[in-house]
Design goal:
With 344 residues, this protein is mostly beta strands. It has a domain at 2-232. The chain has four helices and 14 strands.
């Protein structure tokens, strides 16, 4: 999030003199070593529901496989690319669901790579025909790798000729880190209204590779989300019925605070969406336009983020693709545990 913004601003500079090279490399290096980063983010919140909140595990009518791909700021190459794979299902012999999530995130064209994997168990609670909620615990690991060999430091540049040679001693233990990670979430539904909150990285795992450094913890991420699905409308302007779904998502991680306001319009197999994203702390605001197709067994979504702030000159937007596959057969449940959420 914000560290990605700072790093990419530096990476996009048109460096024209020796001083700029030194300043850029020093700051990029400090950001890479002292990892005060945030999680990768997806614009299609509900096309990646278990990533948004682990309590969505097992809340679909059928077992589902979710695949997500995001290319952030492609104008600068594959600066930030993220891949996500999720599987979840309701367990008929219990009152809960299980899930598995794996994500690969590549930053700065491979300077920083991270892999995370986790298992989720959710417990579903039936209150009445109108009220249902779920709670989940997620446990897994986070593996981070730093390819520091390709970085250039001032001590490697010949003062007279400007040629790069030699090596630079790095104050690091090694170029990788493996840490455990835990998260918690809950979601609920009352009639056509749905809501929830999640806490990711409960133990704030330490990602730093600098010897004796204790400031590289991954901050706790707090997410609150809510939305509604309207009844069907049929106006003269439209030949067929459609539904409208307003939504809001607030996320905070460390000093980063983000407010998202979105609206979906769906008509049978077609969904259109529009989100406004306000980064409260640092102000690189953006809009996200979405389009999706869905049927009983498959869902495909595409979205494009375009900045409405000064960062647009560096970013050239972000592309995101999602696919959801619904598997197996419908089974009769003791009670309804499906949460009606948007397609993307």
């Amino acid at each position: 999030m914000i560290n990605r913004l700072l790093i990419n601003r530096l990476a996009c500079l048109k460096i024209s003199d020796y001083k700029s090279i030194l300043i850029t490399l020093i700051v990029v290096w400090s950001l890479c070593l002292n990892v005060r980063g945030q999680d990768p983010e997806f614009s299609q919140f509900y096309a990646n529901p278990v990533y948004l909140n682990p309590a969505f595990t097992g809340t679909s009518a059928l077992p589902r496989v979710v695949v997500n791909y995001r290319n952030q700021w492609p104008r600068q190459g594959n600066t930030f690319t993220t891949y996500n794979l999720t599987f979840d299902k309701f367990i008929n012999s219990t009152t809960g669901g299980i899930g598995f999530k794996m994500m690969y995130d590549r930053q700065l064209n491979g300077v920083i790579n991270s892999v995370s994997a986790s298992f989720i168990y959710s417990e579903h609670f039936y209150v009445s025909d109108r009220i249902f909620f779920s709670m989940a615990l997620e446990t897994g690991f986070l593996y981070k790798q730093f390819n520091v060999n390709g970085l250039i430091f001032p001590g490697m540049i010949d003062q007279g000729t400007g040629e790069i040679n030699g090596s630079y001693p790095l104050p690091v233990e090694n170029g990788e880190k493996l840490v455990p990670d835990f998260s918690f979430g809950t979601v609920g539904q009352y009639d056509d209204y749905y809501f929830g909150f999640a806490l990711h990285h409960l133990t704030e795992p330490d990602q730093s590779i600098v010897s004796s450094d204790h400031s590289g913890k991954l901050p706790l991420k707090f997410t609150v989300h809510a939305g509604a699905k309207s009844h069907q409308y049929d106006y003269g302007l439209f030949s067929k019925e459609f539904t409208v779904s307003p939504n809001v998502v607030y996320q905070q991680q460390g000093a980063f605070k983000q407010f998202n306001l979105g609206l979906y319009v769906s008509q049978k197999s077609l969904t259109l969406g529009l989100w406004y994203r306000n980064n409260i702390s640092y102000r690189p605001n953006s809009m996200t336009a979405m389009v999706g197709y869905q049927n009983d067994r498959f869902q495909l979504g595409y979205s494009f983020d375009f900045s409405i702030s000064n960062v647009a000159a560096y970013s050239y937007g972000s592309h995101e693709i999602s696919m959801i596959f619904y598997l197996g057969q419908y089974h009769r449940r003791l009670y309804n545990t499906n949460i009606v959420i948007p397609q993307m």
